[in-house]
Please model this.
Amino acid sequence: MDDGELDVLLRNERYPRSAAYPGRWMVDGGMGPNPVWQAEALAEVMALEAGMRVLDLGCGAALSSIFLAKEYGVEVWAADLWVTPDENLRRVADADLEDRVHPIHAEAHALPFAEGFFDALVSIGAYHYFGTDDLYLGYYSRFVKRGGRLGIVQPGLVAEYEALPPPHLAPYWKWDFCAWHSPAWWRRHWEKTGLVTVEVADQLPDGWRDWLQWNEACDQDSGTPGREEAQMLRTDAGQTLGLTRLVAHRN
Ligand SMILES: C[S@@+](CC[C@H](N)C(=O)[O-])C[C@H]1O[C@@H](n2cnc3c(N)ncnc32)[C@H](O)[C@@H]1O
Model:
């Protein structure tokens, strides 16, 4: 598929800022539902001001880091475990952002920062890999200043289920989807610590449609990784699956 056709498949009026970025760049760097759309959706409900120091934890190919630095003028530490800083620095240099996006290799439980170093912490499509542990927030939240915000977006459920998978999703279900949780689950998971106050806990409006659109575009472009997940999302039609968004501030 040529780049123009891909741009057409990825037109989405819910994300006007993301529309300025090439579809090919997003597809080449995406590791889950479009991280650039998710970053824009997070920034809608999480005030980001120019000059703020932001941690993007589990940034993957650093697309969200580049987007946030460009669109909101923030300085971003793009931290990831699987994608090397060498690879991410190339993308950052291509975007002309070497002074404002700093790629680092980091494991979520061994972050090389001082307490209160950041004005905001974001994590897109990644927090559920390490953040479902009851005690993790106590470690993670110390890196943001008191009053500073923490925001996450990732695949999640509309509500919690007694038994998983919901029967209509059984053909598609993978065991690690057990880390996908509802907005209410995440709200309680964070608030029960007393360390943060949750301001927003919702599903992205039409998030499942965005996720499906993304997977269909990836599928039509290269056949992977979108096909089976797209079928699952079409079958579900937003009954069960979506993108969970949470914003809190540190108490
Ligand atoms: C599905 S990818 C999403 C990447 C990117 N944010 C995106 O949306 O395209 C999940 C990311 O979480 C990161 N990750 C998983 N476990 C991690 C850990 N323990 N510490 C740091 N990063 C982790 C991986 O390196 C991976 O890049």
In short: The first helix runs from residue 3 to 9.
